[in-house]
């Protein structure tokens, strides 16, 4: 086992929450200063661990279509974040993407290209969905007050805005204000896994319109209708 692999495994063992160079060095049984002979920064520790996790991720059965692949990919990302608390925020904060992450994006693009996507669109879709998954997970795991309390606060802010900014009210919006208020509170007070999946379905449904239009096929949405 190489020194880089030993260090990466030590990072994973210590965990990503409140990770420090000192904790990793202690796990390896070496002095803090000695660790700097192998890695230059805490960010490098994170990248090494991410690379190893991706390298050792279990093989999955290939999806039968592009949508199945993207659902499979983003489910795996979310599950890794659940398995390793703190990982999502660390990945989001890295100044440069780890090599393993670039490999994930490239592999996803190759699969999408095999389903007929252009390379540029394949990379854009992969980036969009992974980025949305990271941000949604971070929002879902923020320490917040009870859902009812947070929803009430959001509704109060919305009502206050309507009072002080009548210029932003559209014709007929008064009749819809209660519905908008409820939807706003639900969106910002309960951003959990279900809300993430609804956003993902909406993105995939929107993409499916483009894909099926190009093939001359009728579109069948899986997410709730946009219009009543």
Quickly list its features.
0% strand, 228 residues, flat, Arc Repressor Mutant, subunit A, mainly alpha
State the secondary-structure class: mainly alpha
Radius of gyration: 22 Å
Strand content: under 5%
Instruction: Characterize the biggest β-sheet.
Output: none
Query: Helical proportion?
Result: 55-70%
What is the β-strand count?
0
> Terminal Cα separation, in Å?
60 Å
Q: Summarize model confidence as the mean pLDDT.
A: 84
Poorly predicted segments: none
Helical segment count:
11
Give the count of structural domains: 3
The helix-strand sequence is HHHHHHHHHHH
Domain HTH tetR-type: 11-46
Protein name: HTH tetR-type domain-containing protein
GO molecular function: DNA binding
Keywords: DNA-binding
Describe the structure.
This protein has 228 residues and is mainly α. The protein has three domains: 1-56, Arc Repressor Mutant, subunit A (Orthogonal Bundle), CATH 1.10.10; 60-142; 144-190. 70% of the residues lie in helices and 0% in strands. It is built from eleven helices and no strands. It has helices spanning 3-14, 21-28, 32-35, 42-55, 66-83, 87-93, 99-114, 119-140, 147-164, 173-189, 193-215. Helix 4 runs parallel beside helix 7 (99-114). It is flat. 18% of the residues are buried. Keywords: DNA-binding. This is HTH tetR-type domain-containing protein. GO terms for molecular function: DNA binding. InterPro entries: Homeodomain-like_sf, HTH_TetR, Tet_transcr_reg_TetR-rel_C_sf. Residues 11-46 form the HTH tetR-type domain.
């Amino acid at each position: 086992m190489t020194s880089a692999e030993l260090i990466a495994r030590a990072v994973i063992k210590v965990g990503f929450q409140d990770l420090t160079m000192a904790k990793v060095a202690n796990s390896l049984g070496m002095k803090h200063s000695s660790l700097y002979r192998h890695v230059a920064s805490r960010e490098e520790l994170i990248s090494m661990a991410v690379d190893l996790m991706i390298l050792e991720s279990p093989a999955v059965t290939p999806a039968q279509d592009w949508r199945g692949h993207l659902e499979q990919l983003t489910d795996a990302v979310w599950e890794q974040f659940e398995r390793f608390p703190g990982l999502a925020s660390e990945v989001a904060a890295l100044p440069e993407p780890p090599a393993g992450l670039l490999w994930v994006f490239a592999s996803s693009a190759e699969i999408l290209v095999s389903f007929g996507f252009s390379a540029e669109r394949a990379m854009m879709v992969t980036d969009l969905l992974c980025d949305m998954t990271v941000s949604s997970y971070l929002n879902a795991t923020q320490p917040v007050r009870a859902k009812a309390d947070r929803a009430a606060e959001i509704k109060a802010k919305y009502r206050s805005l309507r009072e002080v900014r009548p210029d932003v009210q559209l014709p007929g919006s008064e009749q819809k204000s209660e519905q908008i208020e409820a939807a706003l509170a639900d969106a910002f007070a309960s951003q959990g896994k279900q809300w993430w999946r609804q956003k993902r379905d909406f993105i995939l449904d929107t993409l499916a319109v483009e894909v099926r239009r190009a093939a001359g096929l009728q579109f069948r949405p899986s997410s709730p209708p946009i219009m009543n």
